[in-house]
Amino acid sequence: MAEVIDGRAMAAGVLAATITRVERLKAKGIEPALAVVLVGSDPASEVYVGRKVAQCRKAGIRSVEHRLPAATGKAELLGLIDCLNRDPAIHGILIQLPLPPGLDAAEVLDRIHPLKDVDGFHPVNVGRLSTGTGGLVPCTPLGIMKLLDSVVSDYRGLNVVVIGKSNIVGKPIAMLLLEREATVTVTHIETRDLADVARKADIIVAAAGAPHLVRGFWVKPGAIVIDVGISRIGAADGSTKLVGDCAAHELDHAGAVTLVPGGVGPMTIACLLENTAQAAEMSAE
Ligand code: GUN
Question: Which of this chain's residues are annotated to bind NADP(+) (predicted)?
Answer without folding.
Answer: 164-166, 189, 230
